[in-house]
Design brief:
The protein has 426 residues and is of the alpha/beta class. 41% of the residues lie in helices and 15% in strands. It has helices spanning 73-82, 88-98, 123-139, 144-158, 166-185, 193-202, 221-234, 251-265, 286-300, 317-330, 346-360, 386-395, 416-424, and strands at 5-10, 16-20, 25-29, 49-50, 60-61, 209-214, 239-244, 275-279, 304-309, 334-340, 372-376, 399-403, 411-414. Strands 5-13-12-11-10-6-9-7-8 form a 9-stranded mixed β-sheet, sandwiched between helices. It has a 4-stranded antiparallel β-sheet with strand order 1-2-3-4, with no helix packed on it. The longest helix has 20 residues, at 166-185. The protein is elongated.
Amino acid sequence: MASGVNSIDWNQFGRFYDRNSDNRVIRSCGPAVKCQRCIAPTDKKSALVPVGSMKGELKNLDTEVPSDAEFSPSDEENETDDLSIISSGDNQRDKQANGTGKSLSSGLFGVFRGLVGSKTLTSETLEAPLDKMREHLIGKNVAAEVADELCSSVELKLKGKTVGSFSTIASSVRSAMEESLTTILSPKKRIDMLRDAQARARDGSGRPYVVTFCGVNGVGKSTNLAKICFWLIENGLRVLIAGCDTFRAGAVEQLKTHCRALNALHPPKNGAVMVQLYEKGYGKDAAAIAQEAINYAKSAKFDVVLVDTAGRMQDNEPLMRALAKLMSVNSPDLVLFVGEALVGNEATDQLLKFNRALADHATNAAARTIDAIVLTKFDTIDDKVGACVSMTHSTGQPILFVGTGQTYTDLKVLNVNAVVNALLRP
């Protein structure tokens, strides 16, 4: 048993829990059956795996930077032959400028190697490499319009310059990409969910901070709602989950399971549970359930209400009307669109149509549309990160969170450097 562990519990829904002297769960795992993490363990200790903590701001999503040792000497020699104009010292500086540890003659930078040592760069000399760059970006799921904009920014950065070494052109390309992507990915307004929720809990208004989740079917709304719930509880906020998916069979039961798990991970404080589910079953009016949940949260002194809605296709008018009604009646503080990275630019089309439908079907003058994006299954797309750039460019809404796995701690914040590194890879 680990140091500081007082007891190991087996609870009613099939999880091992390892508690310390403060009665806080420090390790847990799923049922003792064949799975990815454990295969029929014969004792409780063999089934324990780390849970992790999410106190404070979420961690940035970073790309792994390969070391120089991962590239064979033969690869280095071939690249040096292709770029005989570059000295060995320049080649090392190129790797540092790229930020990937690999020679800049590979990947996106390779299309510009023919420009080294040429005369002053013009639109004509840049046309061919920029066309290749555009194809490279589209191959990373960047929408054509956004790829054109990124190429234009690189052209402006290089046009009129005389490039004497490859490191110069590489750093210019990277700098232009970073500037453009920073502009695209930076939110037009500040959205700090944790700080706003904590401020609401302290302001004495009595109204909880309300967040509504919406999106198409099967993208992981309930799962990522539970991750965000875990993060909020980790930071001392009491959360009420409103089960407003009254269509999908098993939706309420899924939320019940999450609530049991989250309460096991965070025992009650002063007799008050940290998370609770408010639900009225199936076939009811979702807007009315959300309204009742918010009123209940006021009386029970919950800090945050997370509203789980039914998945719906963006062109399903009756369901979009129902969602617009829920927004109009309850005026949530934050509306999150949950989309999956796996579908590429289809997620952009879904988001645009959701926003348009919410505006068209609003029941009052001030239409409530989407504020930010949660992009799920980000761990499944390797370096094809273009969809996140396209979504923010097309709508202006920032990507607030990215889901990166199946556990409660697999929630990250997207940053520009991670996107740039992924787009520059071969």
